[in-house]
Amino acid sequence: MSKPAIKPVGSHVIVQRAAASAKSTGGIVLPENAKDKPKQGTVIAVGNGKVLEDGKRQVMQLKTGDRVLFTSYAGNEVKVGGEDYLVMEESDILAVIQ
Fold this sequence. Notes:
By secondary structure, this protein is an all-beta fold. The two termini are 18 Å apart. It is elongated. β4 (76-80) and β5 (83-89) form a beta hairpin. It has no helices and 6 strands. Strands 4-5-1-2-3-6 form a 6-stranded antiparallel beta sheet, with no helix packed on it.
């Protein structure tokens, strides 16, 4: 798990998507353009929380290293230092994998 050269702000998190499977469930080797993008990854960095109306910060539920599930269209893909990351809102995360 590498540390990106970007730091999320507010309630944003940086996620590194899990690697796509090279084979189908039937054992067929898939070409690069036929692979489904995994809907899970590892949290690389978390912001410091959303500022609430009373001026306090909401505590982030996620932490660096959490394995998470998210929707297909969650986040924005960015490339930093040759690595691909997703920047998304904490609310885009559906679950933490235990």
